[in-house]
Structure formats: structure tokens, C-alpha cells
Amino acid sequence: MPFMKGRAPIRRTLNYLNAGKLVFKDKIRIFSVAYNILGQNNTGAKEFVFWYLPQIQYKNPDVQVTTLKNLTPSPFIKCYFEDGRRILVNVDNKSKEEILEHLLNTVGKSKDVLEAEAVAAEKKDNSANFGVGCERACICETYGQVPCSGVVPLPKFMRGKYRNQKD
């Protein structure tokens, strides 16, 4: 498999991308990470970009993610909001887990919000859901389905009583 080549090919699997924890709040539009390639104080930022940035990009498709290498003496993360506000996070001498935990607490959605959004999306998106509390009261309202037999009688060839009868 060609996608399993290179450094840490696990990062390109769908299971790994879905396992990401950081989902940004709705108002964040740009996420920027600036770090240097060399230096001990940049190790956490480098590892954060290597391990967590693919998950962040996958979980937040509407957010522009940029990385700036070798442009700053100390590593930092900057988040830009849609109303023009900015958040600057200093990641100097922090590990990748500390950086992720800090971002989860400051710009990430809480677990309760994520669960509520998942329930709402599941209920609305699935056209197979019908009955009380759903968009459709009956499956006959779905395009391509046979109408209700109480309103329009089924043709005889579609009824088991006539189809299974052998003369």
C-alpha cells in the first residue's frame, strides 16, 4: 500500500484522523503555528505539528491551518477569530500534550457541546429515520418508496398473497 510509506504512516489512516480531540469553536477561522526546526525549546511545537496537525485539519475543515517555519525566535500558536480578535499562545518549552491540553481548554469545544452536535447531526442527516420526532412520520414520504397501502392499494403482483400462490 503506497500510503503506508514514509515517517509514521499511521498518521494517514482514517482511524487516526478520527481520533483527534481538538474541534475548534465555530468562530475560529485561521489557526497558525510558528516554530523553528532547530533548538530544544521548539521540540514540543515540532512534535505537535507532526502528530496532531493532521487530526486538527481533518476535524476542522472550515479552518485555515498554516505553519510558519524558521521565522520566529520562540514558538507560538495564533488563532484568528471571524470578528478580528486574536489569541496568542506561547508554546516555548512545552510538550505536545501540554500544548494540546491548553488548546482544548481555550479554543476547543467542550465534550458536552460535541455530544449535543453529534446527536443533532445524526437525527437530521439520516433519511432512514422516520416516526415520532423525526422529519418524516412514515417511510412512504421518502422519495422512491412505495406509497402507504392505506391510501393507494398495492398492485397484486407486489402482494405476497398473490405472488406466492401457485396454480
UniProtKB/TrEMBL annotation:
Key words, A-Z: Mitochondrion, Ribonucleoprotein, Ribosomal protein
Entry GO CC: mitochondrion; ribonucleoprotein complex; ribosome
Localization per Swiss-Prot or TrEMBL: Mitochondrion
Pfam families found in the cross-reference section: L51_S25_CI-B8
A molecular function GO annotation: structural constituent of ribosome
Domain Ribosomal protein/NADH dehydrogenase: 40-110
InterPro entries (UniProt xref): Ribosomal_mL43/mS25/NADH_DH, Ribosomal_mS25/mL61
Major localisation: mitochondrion
Family named by the database record: Belongs to the mitochondrion-specific ribosomal protein mS25 family.
Protein's name according to its UniProt entry: Small ribosomal subunit protein mS25
Species for this entry: Parnassius apollo (Apollo butterfly)
